[in-house]
Amino acid sequence: MQDIWILVVVSLFALSSSALGSFLVVRQMVMLTDTLSHSILPGIAIAYIVQGEKNNLFILIFALLCGLLIVSIINWLNSRIRNRNDAVLGSVYTFFFAVGIILVTLFGEQADLDTDCVLFGEMLYIPFDTLDWAEMPRNFPLALVVGIGVLFFVWKSFRPLSIISFDETFAQSIGVNVTFWNYALTSLVTIVTILSFEIVGSVMVVAMFAFPPAIAFLLTKRLQIMLIISLIVSIFSVVIGYYFSVWQGGSSAASIVIVQGIFFMLSVIFNKVGFINKIKI
C-alpha cells in the first residue's frame, strides 16, 4: 500500500506538470520551471530559518511569495528586453539560486535543510507523513486538488492558451488578454513547481515539465493530442521509474528522470530515422 500511495501522489503532480508543460514546450519556455525550481530556494530557506522546523504551510507561503516575485521580475524584464528570454531566465536563475545556496550553507544546519533534500526531494516519506484524521498521506489531498484544478484550468482555458502559445500578436488582434493569460499560466506553473519541490526535488520538477511534453511534441503537432500523449507518458514514466528504483535500490526521483530521458532519446532516434513520421498523429 505504501508503494501505491507514492505512485498516486507523484503521478498527480506529474499530470499537473505535464499538462502545463505542454504549453511551455510550444512557447519554448520550459526552462522557466528550471529557473523557478532553483530560484525559489531563498524563499524555502528563509521559511526554514524563521520557523526552525518543517512547516509545510509556512514553506508554501514563503516559496509562493518568492516564486511570484520571480515571475513578476521575469515578465518585467522580458517586456524591457525583447527576444532575450534565455538571457533573462539565466540571469534570474543564477542570482536567486546563488542567494539560496548561501542561505542553505549558512543556516541549513539549524533549519534542518540540506542540498540532498533540495535536489531529490522526499518521495519515499510520502506514506509515513499521514493526516491525523485519516489514514492517508498528508500530501494526497493537496496533490488531488492541484491535479484536478490544473486539468480543469487547461480544459476551460485551452483556446486562449493555445492561441497565445502559437502567436501572441494574433491573440492580441482578436481581443485575447495576453498579459492576463501569461500571468495566469506562469503563476500556476509556479504553484505546481513549489508544491512538487519538497516531494520530488528540483531535478525531477524540471523533468516532469519538460520530458513528457517534449516526447509528445515529436509524435504530433496537434496540441490537443499532445496534451493527451504527455499525460500518458508522465504516468508510465513514474510507474516504470519508481519500480526500477525499488529493484536497483537507487533514488526514485533520479530513476524516474532517467526513464523519461530514455523515452525522449528513443523518440528522437525513431523520429530521425523516419519511423515516427509514418505513425505521426
UniProtKB/TrEMBL annotation:
GO terms for biological process: response to zinc ion; transmembrane transport. It holds the Pfam family ABC-3. It is a multi-pass membrane protein. Its main location: membrane. Signal peptide: none annotated. It is found in: Cell membrane. Gene3D superfamilies: ABC transporter involved in vitamin B12 uptake, BtuC. InterPro entries: ABC_BtuC-like (IPR037294), ABC_TroCD (IPR001626). The chain crosses the membrane at residues 57-77, 89-108, 140-158, 170-193, 199-218, 225-244, 250-270. One of its GO terms (cellular component) is ATP-binding cassette (ABC) transporter complex. Keywords: Cell membrane, Membrane, Transmembrane, Transmembrane helix, Transport. Belongs to the ABC-3 integral membrane protein family. This is ABC-type Mn2+/Zn2+ transport system permease component.
